[in-house]
Amino acid sequence: MSEPQFVPLPTRYDPGVPSEDAARAFYEVMSTRHSVREFSSRPVSRETIEWAVRTAGRAPSGANLQPWRFVCVQDPDRRRRIRAAAEEEERAFYERRASERWLRDLAPLGTDTVKEYLEIAPWLIAVFLVTKQSDGAPVYYGSESVGLAAGFLIAALHHAGLVALTHTPSPMAFLNKVLDRPPEERAFLLLPVGYPADDCRIPEHALQRKPLDEIMIVQ
Ligand code: IYR
């Protein structure tokens, strides 16, 4: 067991304005984020995606194991294969697997089995949970960790003026095959990323957010 070594907090982030103003300003930025299904094919530079992934890599994780991998796909052939496999899963979902209740809850979003955005958006980011350490030991709080990193990622993409969809074809095992990932990596999310289409629309339903008094309890 190695002794813990401590260093001073390297940088104290100072927003330069009172915390209330900084918190509100970040809220204003994040409140314009929406999941989008209508993408432009306008290219997004690799550098932009790299900065967003670096940001995701700053998320906290169980024992700082950073159990995530972000596979950023541009290659049209892989994207075509991902779309074909995702649509097959979605057909099974909408036609057989989803409960009546689930379909009813999704109805206001207007989603269906056709996932053209998987080929239109210039990047697909497949987020994988790395379930094992290099010596085969398990990771701790893997889903929580990769979920936090995914949150950082979508915030970073939004901050860069991009849009994304947190797409969850289920099961996602096909991504291991199409993206040549080993079995200890488990697909967690598939994010089409790009700019919104000129005539991009979102479901009205998505505008409704629970008010603060419904989500916050102060004790
Ligand atoms: N994965 C399916 C169904 C779906 C599920 C949820 I939860 C959503 O918020 C939206 C869709 C699909 O992508 O169509």
Tell me the CATH topology.
Answer: NADH Oxidase
Uncertain runs: none
Strand order of the largest sheet: 1-2-4-3
Cα separation of the termini = 39 Å
Ligands: 3-iodo-tyrosine
Estimate nothing, just give the exact number of structural domains: 1
Describe the structure.
The protein has 219 residues and is α+β, with helices and mostly antiparallel strands. The protein has one domain (37-195): NADH Oxidase. Helix content is 38%, strand content 12%. The chain is built from eight helices and four strands, in the order ααβαααβαβαβα. The chain has a four-stranded antiparallel β-sheet. Helix 2 (46-56) packs across helix 6. The longest helix is centred in the middle third of the chain and has 22 residues, at 76-97. 26% of the residues are buried. Bound molecules: 3-iodo-tyrosine. 3-iodo-tyrosine binds at residues 90, 93, 106, 109, 111, 167-169.
Describe the structure using short key phrases.
219 residues; alpha+beta; NADH Oxidase; four-stranded antiparallel β-sheet; globular; binds 3-iodo-tyrosine
Short description:
With 219 residues, the chain is of the alpha+beta class. Helices cover 38% and strands 12% of the residues.
